[in-house]
Fold:
Amino acid sequence: MNEVDYSSAKTDAAEVVGQRAPRVPAPPQVYYSVLWRIITFIMDKTVSFRTDAKKVKALDALAAGQDRDRSYLLNQAIDNYLDLQQYHVELIEKGIRQADAGELVDHRDVEKIVAKLRRKK
Structure:
């Protein structure tokens, strides 16, 4: 039998540092999963606020009825609010542009329209 001389083998960790096993590339799903977690962490922010218990209870009931969590419904509500506010800003800007262009309605004409609408009720 051949004997192996282990006395010259590298046993000090500092001497072995440069020697690694060859890397096997991870499947793409792993990269996508890690990338998705990083993006979500960067983009998502936690916001907290106070509200009364009745509102939380109602929100939780809605969430349960839709098989969603509270955060989903709150995000939906915030999206709707922001969309509505943006719509209002756009209408105001449109009105300002029309006023700047001289596209105005005389006050007496507005009063007539309002009076006509009141009579319809």
